[in-house]
Amino acid sequence: MMTEMPEGVPAEYPIEVVWEGGMRYRGGRPGGATLTVDGDAQAAPSPVDALVVSLASCSAIDVVDYLEKRRTPASSLSVSVRFSRAPNPPRRLTDAVLTYRLASDSPREHVERAVQLSFEKYCSVAGSLAPDTRLDYEIELSPAAG
User: Cα(67)–Cα(111) distance, rounded to whole angstroms?
Assistant: First the structure.
């Protein structure tokens, strides 16, 4: 049965997920790069951990891009995430605090603006979360290296 997509622009490629045994699955674009997800979080991140990694990396991409466009690029960036899940099934993500540790000569207000724009406008992962998922951030800024 073919289901019509009610909104949006269809992706130009499908995603295929294949069971590898146990609670492990490998997925991605057919013929392209793949990732493994493990429901036991032993051989790979769990599905929720993978979602949190996706959120952090999506936002980090936006922050790096924003700072490059302002001509004050980051020389390093890492993001750690503390998050909470609902106590009952489906135990969805309810809160996340992303801590951005970056080295850049950009003023703090530009870094803050980059994160805010990522959450509010650019990061498709953040935009795909339930509307009541609370996202917050902390910034640890140091001068650009070298």
Answer: 7
